[in-house]
Amino acid sequence: MTAALAPAAPLDLADWQxxxxxxxxxxxxxxxxxxxxxxxxxxxxxxxxLFTYYSHRPAQLRRWHPGPGAVLRGADGAEFGPDYRATxxxxxxxxxxxxxxxxxxxxxxxxLLAATADRPAHLGCFGMHEWAMVYRQTQEEVRHNAxxxxxxxxxxxxxxxxxxxxxxxxxxxxFFTAPARPLNLLAPTRESQHDLEQPGCLHANMDLYKWAxxxxxxxxxxxxxxxxxxxxxxxxxxxxASPYDLAALGYPPVRxxxxxxxxxxxxxxxxxxxxxxVLRARLLDALGRAEGPLPAPAVRQGPLR
Length: 305
Fold this sequence. Notes:
The chain is mainly alpha-helical and 305 residues long. The chain is 50% helix and 3% strand. The protein has helices spanning 13-40, 49-52, 58-62, 77-80, 95-101, 103-117, 128-132, 153-163, 170-173, 193-196, 202-215, 221-240, 259-288; strands spanning 71-72, 84-86, 91-93. Helix 11 runs antiparallel to helix 12.
């Protein structure tokens, strides 16, 4: 049974339009450089990643949803789409209809978020997942081959072999080179994601953006944008600690092949884990206001596509 939403005071036309405008202006600051590069065919390995790796398109990120329980005075239902319904007080999200239609996927995401939140953060990977993605490849073979590696392929391989790889995130692991996979402490799969995801992982914390937009409009667009903002910062650390030399783009390396670099990485990773914990709790709270009890851990129907 779906939990009842707490009554919310209707938002006047000027108030919700101001909120929507603030969201659009915030997002436009991220979109404008990306769209300019896209028009010219230029690529940026950090700033473009969230638009190419994730499925949420720029126009979707810019579109504003108020979240469940919000009531908008003077809103046009055609402007917001079929997931909204008119009431005497104003336009509101048809939360029960959306929840019923997408129940399996929403439950999968909610169970993943809750399982991850309940685990301690592990901070000892030192970003070796990015190194495993270029392990035993030449400069021409690596994914971002327009940018040089900081070390030779042989030196890069030596770092991976010396440090080992402790990646628990399936969507990072699946990009490892074939020779790197046996070096990983784990063999993550989509099926084991609920059991392995942990809150210190940079990619798990970047993915909070993905789960937020896949849950939209059951979460408000400001929360989706907060996920994007955090993921954008995490991506910068991810690539600064990678084998790539992106100093020319303004990303000085975090040299995780050295003790000093590993300490710098772990400190930044801890800070991101703390911020991600707040965002994960906000997502769970938003779902708790629109859903019933948490499903049994056995739910494995797959995330939203």
